[in-house]
């Protein structure tokens, strides 16, 4: 083979490779071909308004404050919320105990039939469990909010454990107190 044929063949091969790579890999300066209808390009110069957009007096009063709260502030806030929950629950329980006491005294005075004692017990036990379940839900909601707020302010979630311990202790004390009241009524 002579050198002229090899040069022509090499030149044609380079052209084919160049054109093939252009179609295979695309030219980065060209817009890609899509099957969508062509979009029109909207160009518009935006001008700044010639009058004030915001009232300057309102903007001057904006201040950036640090939103983190101290550990004591967070605990005090939730202490109040837990005490409100305790007060609400105690009020509901006291009302239920008063009704149960009234109905039990009516049973003793023979205003109810003999089989109604079991019905009374089941009724008030169910109502008591309902109050306990709702209180548990409310406590868990507050407890999770407390843990979240502690974490958001950079404090360990373990700081909330004392509230759970107090809640569990007070719940058991209240149950024990109610049981003692019930037993004292039965013994009379």
How would you characterize this protein structure?
This protein has 188 residues and is an all-alpha fold. Helices cover 69% and strands 0% of the residues. It has helices spanning 3-25, 56-60, 71-108, 116-152, 161-187. Helix 3 runs antiparallel to helix 4 (116-152).
What structural class should be given to the helix and strand makeup? mainly alpha
Cα(first) to Cα(last) distance is 127 Å
Biggest sheet, in brief?
Answer: none
Oligomer: single chain
Please tally the β strands and state the result.
0
Strand-residue proportion: under 5%
Morphology call: elongated
**Uncertain residue segments:** none
> Helix count, per DSSP?
5
Mean pLDDT: 77
Radius of gyration: 39 Å
Order of helices and strands: HHHHH
Please describe the structure with a list of short key phrases separated by commas or semicolons.
5 helices; mainly alpha; 69% helix
Summarize the structure.
This protein has helices spanning 3-25, 56-60, 71-108, 116-152, 161-187.
Strand and helix layout:
Layout: H1 3-25, H2 56-60, H3 71-108, H4 116-152, H5 161-187
Helix pairs in contact: 3-4
